[in-house]
Amino acid sequence: MTPSDHPAPRSTAVDHRAAIATETARFVAALKGADLTTPVPSCPEWILADLVKHTGSVQRWFSSLLHARVQEPPRTRKVDLQLPDRQEEYADWLAESATVAAQAFAATDPNLPMWAWGVDQHARFWARRMLFETLLHRVDADLALGRRPAIDRPLAVDGIDEFLVNLPCAAFFAPDVANLRGPGKTIRFRATDGDDNWFVRLRPDGFGLDTSPAATDTADATVQGTAADLLLLLYGRLRHDTTPFTHDGDKDLLAHWFANSAF
Question: pTM of the prediction?
Answer without folding.
Answer: 0.93
